[in-house]
C-alpha cells in the first residue's frame, strides 16, 4: 500500500494558496487564476528514500462565505501551510483568526504547521521579514518566505512540512506502542493509593 500525507492550504483570499499548490504539483504559475470556490485537491507521488509517498494537497477558499464549508475537510489533515501575502497587511493580521479556527477543528499535537509569507517577489512589501519571523516564533512553527510566481522556496517549504509530518507520525506511533507495551502492574501503580 502506498503511504499518503494530507496537506491543507489555509489563509485569507488572494494570498496565493492555489498558486503555491499549482507551483508545487504542476510547476506552473498563472497571473490570472479563479478564486477557489469551496474545496478541491491535487496530488502527486514523490519518492521518499526507498518508498513512495502520495502527497495530497487540499486547497480551500479564503473568501469568508466559504469558510464554514471547510471543517469536514480539516479532518485527517496532517500539515498546514498557513499563508499570508507580504503585500497584504490584512492577510497577515488575519493569521491569528485562522490559527484559532484551525485549533478548534484539529488536534494540535497531530498537525504540523508552517507560516508562509508568499509573494516575496514583489517589492512593495507591507509586512517585514522580522514581523513574519516573530509571529512564527509566537506559534513555535517554521517560517518560509516564498514566491509561487518565481518558485522561490516553494519546494523547500513543502519538503519541510512533509518531513515534519513523517517525524510526527513516527513519534506518535512510538508513543502508542510504548503505552501498549506498558506493563499493567506499572499502570496500576500510578493510581492514587488509599490510606485506609
Ligand atoms: N506576484 C505574485 N503574485 C502571486 C503570487 N502568488 C499568487 N499570486 C497572484 O495572486 C492572485 C491570487 O492568487 P490565488 O492563488 O488565486 O490566491 P488564493 O489564496 O488561492 O485565493 P482564494 O482562492 O480566493 O482563497 C493571482 O492573481 C495570482 O496570480 C506570487 O508569489 N507572486
Ligand atoms: Mg484559491
TrEMBL record:
GO cellular component terms given for this protein: endomembrane system; Golgi apparatus
A biological process from GO: intracellular protein transport
Keywords: GTP-binding, Nucleotide-binding
PROSITE patterns hit by this protein: ARF (PS51417), RAB (PS51419), RAS (PS51421), RHO (PS51420)
GO molecular function: GTP binding; GTPase activity
Matching SMART domains: ARF, RAB, RAN, RAS, RHO
Pfam families, sorted: Ras
UniProt superkingdom: Eukaryota
NCBIfam families referenced in this protein's UniProt entry, alphabetically: small_GTP
Protein name, UniProt field: Chromosome undetermined scaffold_3, whole genome shotgun sequence
Provenance organism: Paramecium tetraurelia
Amino acid at each position: 500500500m502506498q503511504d499518503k500525507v494530507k496537506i491543507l492550504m489555509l489563509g485569507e483570499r488572494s494570498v496565493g494558496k492555489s498558486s503555491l499548490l499549482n507551483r508545487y504539483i504542476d510547476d506552473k504559475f498563472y497571473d490570472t487564476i479563479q478564486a477557489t470556490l469551496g474545496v478541491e485537491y491535487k496530488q502527486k507521488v514523490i519518492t521518499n528514500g526507498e518508498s513512495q509517498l502520495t502527497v495530497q494537497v487540499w486547497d480551500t477558499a479564503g473568501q469568508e462565505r466559504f469558510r464554514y464549508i471547510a471543517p469536514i475537510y480539516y479532518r485527517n489533515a496532517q500539515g498546514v501551510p498557513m499563508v499570508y501575502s507580504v503585500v497584504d497587511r490584512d492577510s497577515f493580521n488575519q493569521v491569528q483568526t485562522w490559527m484559532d479556527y484551525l485549533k478548534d477543528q484539529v488536534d494540535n499535537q497531530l498537525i504540523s504547521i508552517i507560516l508562509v509569507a508568499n509573494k516575496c517577489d514583489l517589492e512593495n512589501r507591507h509586512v517585514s521579514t522580522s514581523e513574519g519571523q516573530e509571529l512564527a516564533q509566537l506559534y513555535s512553527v517554521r517560517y518560509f518566505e516564498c514566491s509561487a510566481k518565481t518558485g522561490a522556496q516553494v519546494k523547500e517549504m513543502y519538503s519541510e512540512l512533509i518531513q515534519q509530518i513523517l517525524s510526527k507520525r513516527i513519534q506518535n506511533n512510538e508513543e502508542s506502542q510504548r503505552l501498549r507495551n506498558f506493563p499493567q502492574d506499572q499502570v496500576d501503580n500510578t493510581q492514587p493509593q488509599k490510606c485506609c
